[in-house]
Structure formats: structure tokens, C-alpha cells
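Reviewers of the previous submission asked for a worked example of the structure-prediction workflow described in the proposal, so we include one complete record here. The input consisted solely of the amino acid sequence. No template or homolog information was supplied to the procedure at any stage.
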Amino acid sequence: QAQLEESGGGLVQAGGSLRLSCTVSGRRTSSTYACGWFRQGPGNEREFVSTITWNGSGTRYADSVKGRFTISRDRNTVYLQMNSLKPEDTAVYYCAARDGFLGMGLTGRDYPYWGQGTQVTVSS
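From that input alone, the workflow returned the following C-alpha cells.
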């Protein structure tokens, strides 16, 4: 069982940057989990943003954020650096985790563990 907690959301102007953090805790170390970021904007379904392997050797991104967002991890924390933010990036961002041996997951159904989410609002 893993517990996840996101932080770092807030209000930013278009073109600005934010860094989200996800702290993973539980009986196992966070390095045994593959992690992902998802988001859900107003009136939208939850969508995949990015994922990273348990050891950080592999990453994947949604086309909509490729080149602007960077996922990384360090010990018990997974980060999402978001640059060149756009109003359409406005959403609640969720961190998710699954057993590392399963590899990266690209859909919400791939992840059994979730955080509560952090709001990101980008003003135009």
C-alpha cells in the first residue's frame, strides 16, 4: 500500500512555470513504484500527462505537454516541471503509482494508488 501526496499547484500566468511534487510513502520505498501524472480539467475526463519508470530510466509524455513538461524522480519524490504553461493546462493534477515491475502505465486504470490532487490554474 502506498500513500501519495501532491504539492506545488497554484495560480500562474500563461507562459509561466510551476513544479509539482509527489511524495510517495508506505511500507515499500518509492523507488519500487512506477509513477505517473494525470490531470482533469473543468468538464473534461481525466487524461494522461506523463509517466516514469521506477528507476527513472524511462519517461513518456502526452503530445500536448511534450517539450514543455519534464518528469523526474529523486528518492521518495516524483516531480513534474511545467514550463510555458497555457490556459488549457488548467486542471487538477494527480499523482499515481503502481508496482515498478509492471513498467510505465498510460491510463488511469493502470494505477491502483492515487493522491488527492493539486489545482493548477493558468490565467491568460
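The chain has a mean pLDDT of 94. We consider this example representative of the routine output the project will generate in years two and three.
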